[in-house]
């Protein structure tokens, strides 16, 4: 097993800085497009053999140090009872959106083994196929980020409907978040049981809240999830040990003093803040993940190298560093630049 990623999550000594890329399976890869020509995105997520195949594509093509389960953060939302569709260019649509008590009452807390078994099957296939080559990361949306999609009915610019519910009807919002949080807990526990060796919580939209609102309306639910997962173990040899939890927040810079109370092992950092600044503010209890601007991958290779060097150098005093982009890789990204970046991280960080 390549333990480098798991060791960096725990802040243990590593021979080089491990790297993986958010959205590493996806449209910038020809191999992915070939499969997507035959099946739509949701079918791909729900067909374990295919989902496992596209999960492994970037491991072979890029040489990254971890695999991330191919799925979507909205899969559990569909299992809760909402109608989910994906449209080219427009992204996900959940219709009708959640706006009142009656629609929240109708939502279920799904049983992952029954309602999302295809995800667990994908994980089991992946552990067999990866065969120790790299560890497998499971994931879920964090409660707030999932709730924004449910309340807005899709992606949003200003999150007016979400903030309207949070600010004007906090009890209604809390009742929705209770169900979403319970769903996330059950979902991640089942992923770990199926074989996920680390988990990442994606809180893509938490940065749209002020620090005070984040502390009150997002963080307590994240803490609840992390507390429930803390006792979970995985087969990280030589001995069984606790499963690393990664918490990624989009636009985290204004929230780090709150985020540092969340209890995760690793904090994912976007590119809008220097990673050394984030490390200082988080303190020495965390490893960090990030934080190259995804658009840097469109530069010539010597310029990419300068930026990779800068991130590595800024993060050199962290308890542990996992190199990543500050958000998902863009579909237009030249693959050869991604391959070059992974190689640069390994070479420039080797001790
Ligand atoms: O990282 C990986 O490679 C694993 C797979 C993964 C996907 N989505 C595949 C995907 C993961 C971890 C996600 C998480 C996800 N999904 C997030 C959180 C992370 C982030 O990027 O902020 C969010 C907000 C979503 C919701 C979502 N899914 C949106 C807004 C979209 C449309 C935008 C787009 O890029 O088209 C998706 C679709 C989606 N999820 C695709 C992929 C590969 C593209 C679907 C396609 O093939 O057409």
Taking all residues together, what is the mean pLDDT?
A: 96
Sheet with the most strands? 7 strands, parallel
Radius of gyration based on Cα positions: 19 Å
Number of helices: 17
Bound molecules: coproporphyrinogen III
Lateral arrangement of strands in the main beta sheet: 1-4-5-8-9-10-11
Order of helices and strands: HHHHEHEEHHHEHHHEHHEEEHEHEHEH
- Kindly report how far apart the N and C termini lie: 20 Å
* Coarse shape: globular
Structural class based on helices, strands and sheet pairing: alpha/beta
Q: What is the total tally of β strands?
A: 11
Low-confidence stretches: none
Query: Could you tell me the strand content as a percent range?
Result: 5-15%
Residues in helices, as a percent range: 40-55%
Topology diagram in text:
Elements: H1 4-10, H2 30-38, H3 41-46, H4 48-62, E1 67-68, H5 75-79, E2 84-87, E3 91-94, H6 101-106, H7 112-115, H8 117-130, E4 136-141, H9 143-152, H10 160-168, H11 170-194, E5 198-203, H12 211-217, H13 219-229, E6 233-234, E7 241-242, E8 245-249, H14 256-259, E9 266-268, H15 275-282, E10 287-292, H16 301-314, E11 321-325, H17 335-349
Helix pairs in contact: 4-8, 9-10, 9-11, 10-11, 11-13, 16-17
Bound molecules: coproporphyrinogen III.
């Amino acid at each position: 097993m390549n333990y480098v990623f798991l060791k960096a999550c725990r802040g243990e000594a590593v021979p080089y800085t491990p790297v993986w890329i958010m959205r590493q399976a996806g449209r910038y890869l020809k191999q992915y497009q070939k499969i997507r020509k035959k099946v739509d995105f949701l079918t791909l997520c729900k067909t374990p053999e295919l989902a496992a195949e596209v999960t492994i594509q970037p491991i072979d093509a890029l040489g990254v140090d971890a695999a991330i389960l191919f799925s979507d953060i909205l899969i559990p939302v569909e299992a809760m009872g909402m109608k989910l569709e994906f449209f080219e260019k427009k992204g996900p649509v959940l219709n009708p959106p959640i706006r009142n008590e009656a629609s929240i009452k109708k939502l279920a807390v799904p049983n992952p083994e029954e309602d999302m078994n295809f995800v667990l099957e994908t994980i089991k296939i992946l552990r067999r196929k990866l065969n120790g080559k790299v560890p497998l990361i499971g994931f879920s949306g964090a409660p707030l980020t999932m709730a924004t999609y449910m309340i807005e009915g899709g992606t949003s610019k200003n999150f007016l409907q979400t903030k309207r519910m949070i600010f004007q009807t906090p009890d209604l919002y809390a009742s929705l978040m209770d169900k979403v949080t319970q769903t996330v807990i059950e979902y991640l526990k089942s992923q770990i049981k199926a074989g996920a060796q680390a988990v990442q919580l994606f809180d893509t939209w938490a940065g749209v809240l002020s620090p005070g609102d984040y502390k009150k309306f997002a963080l307590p639910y994240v803490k609840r999830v992390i507390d429930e997962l803390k006792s979970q173990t995985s087969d990280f040899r030589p001995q069984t040990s606790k499963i690393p939890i990664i918490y990624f927040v989009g636009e985290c810079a204004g929230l780090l003093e709150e985020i540092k109370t969340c209890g995760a092992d690793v904090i994912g950092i976007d590119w809008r803040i220097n990673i050394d600044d984030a490390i200082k503010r988080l303190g020495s209890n965390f490893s960090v993940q990030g934080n190259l601007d995804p658009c840097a991958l469109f530069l010539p290779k010597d310029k990419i190298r300068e930026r990779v060097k800068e991130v590595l150098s800024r993060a050199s005093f962290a308890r542990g560093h996992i190199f990543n982009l500050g958000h998902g890789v863009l579909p237009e990204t030249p693959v050869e630049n991604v391959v070059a970046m992974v190689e640069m991280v390994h070479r420039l960080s080797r001790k």
